[in-house]
Specification:
Distance between the termini of chain A: 61 Å
Shape of chain A: globular
Strand order of the largest sheet of chain A: 1-8-7-6-5-2-3-4
Oligomer: homodimer
Number of strands of chain A: 12
Largest interface: A-B, 34 and 34 residues
Structural class of chain A: alpha/beta
Largest sheet of chain A: 8 strands, mixed
Order of helices and strands of chain A: HEHEHEEHEHEHEEHHHEEHEEH
Radius of gyration of chain A: 20 Å
Helix content of chain A: 40-55%
Amino acid sequence: LQYGTTEGDPSLRKMLVERHNRQGLNLSIENLIIVTGSQQAIDLIAKVFLNPDDYVICGLPSYLGGINAFTVYGAKLKGIPLDEQGMIVEELEDTLITLRELGRKVKLLYLIPDFQNPAGITLPNSRREKIIQLAKKYDILIIEDSPYREVRFEGEPQKLMQELDPSGRVITLCSFSKILAPGFRVGWVIGHPAILDKLVMAKQTADICTSTFVQKVIARYMEKGLLEQNLKKTIDLYRERRTFMLQCFKKYMPEAVRWTEPQGGLFLFVTLPQTINANDIFNKAIERNVAFVTGSTFFCNDTGRNTMRINFSYSNPDEIDTGVKRLAEVICEELASK
Amino acid sequence: LQYGTTEGDPSLRKMLVERHNRQGLNLSIENLIIVTGSQQAIDLIAKVFLNPDDYVICGLPSYLGGINAFTVYGAKLKGIPLDEQGMIVEELEDTLITLRELGRKVKLLYLIPDFQNPAGITLPNSRREKIIQLAKKYDILIIEDSPYREVRFEGEPQKLMQELDPSGRVITLCSFSKILAPGFRVGWVIGHPAILDKLVMAKQTADICTSTFVQKVIARYMEKGLLEQNLKKTIDLYRERRTFMLQCFKKYMPEAVRWTEPQGGLFLFVTLPQTINANDIFNKAIERNVAFVTGSTFFCNDTGRNTMRINFSYSNPDEIDTGVKRLAEVICEELASK
């Protein structure tokens, strides 16, 4: 119940390090610190590394709720389009060249390589390697935000960018929020000790340490082997719901609507015909008790108005069936009115 | 176990509001938010209100570990001397006049009105009122940091500055760290809703919300009436230790040493003869298993080298007796060597 070290509970850090090393990494305890949710890590990275007018590069789309922490510190966001394999490397390099020519300073590249939020896309290893090469060439730090990685239903895991980068410029953010409970507010950061030292300094004045009580609760839970048991149950449950939601989409959605078929994570990303603005149908859906996140929330260049993110992890099959059916009706009505 | 609202658990906020109102305040739920320890509140206030080169005024001495959060955002600290009643109001006004003449912008006044850390001094109501008047005149926000207030052994409680200020410019920081457990990392902020709204916006990108799990644990603990029971035990224990430490000081310390006799809190503040630098005797004390915080840590103008803060809350009577005795020996040896 006392204050703990800012770096985090040593036993929890040790268990996490050992768990990563069993999965192929080669970490020591100096490569891992505990944070108050990975949102805090984003905030600390911004505080330490960003000056006003620095650029942060992210995906088009990307979860802006999280990375608004960057803009709070005066940074500018620049989005790079994704294709079905994630961020397009050529577009990234073109942008880096252009920004350099304009005399802009790009500091950070923010990526969600596994089951990207909201697109659900996983970057293949080859593209991860190319992006690391570019980051090296243009002297940029990479934030590998990885909350969904372990929620994989099928297919082959790709390597963590942390594992692919020997140069120490990847900062990997992990979290218990999607594999145990968001209400604990505990995440962890993997990276070069010199970078983590700076984050720890910033964390001292941010909250001194993450709740030692909660860290001990999680450590005990992991010691008992319950994390892996719970994770397996979570994955089985979410896989079933994902599969069922995809069936409902096929059954109810009009032909002009497209959606992703994610191998993991919590979301479908849905693209409506260009004529439909997801903001326009939001209130109509809410009236029928169906909620989604409007896609424009994810585009830092103010596009993506015909897209939406739909969560399949939370509802039971009956609710999913009813929800998709009602949403399809709203979309059909909107299409008919055009 | 889910995410909660950024403002904090409604039942915990409600209980805290009711508790304050029983103590004489007149708050509604919009006047109170939960934070991840009051350290986070300092960080959020700095983030929201400070620009580089703004001035923050604090006591000489004052706990700089906490308010280094201000300097992280580029603010400058200016210290005002304390007398035995706390911050000297005339010195405060002189400084405000001087800084205004120099064209400097003073944004915040940081105070610990009850059992000030490290000096142990409590500001009387009359001085609290005068300081609020000055803050109004010079358009400054007051941070009333109040972690020790409830740990009172004797004497009459003064009013919270929050209660004395009808203008809404006092932001009061409270914490469970000294009345329950620092390892929970839960505090709360009282203030004008317009100010709290800004802090909530900043908290969203800092950690989304304070651990909902820990908030529920504390709410349950309070519902059962255990907080008041535990607080009474804490106060009785600390009072006993404070009284015993004062006896040991009288018994062992050479005549040239002075110390405070605090009516609450956790610390004695000790002033050595001017010829002794507390930093010089620190290692010698550590060798004899006695630790203290060197006083210069508390002076933003690099003075106070002959002072030290000594904690009486943690050790049992035997340890206090031995510790004070050994510390007195070290001081006597140092005096003899001059």
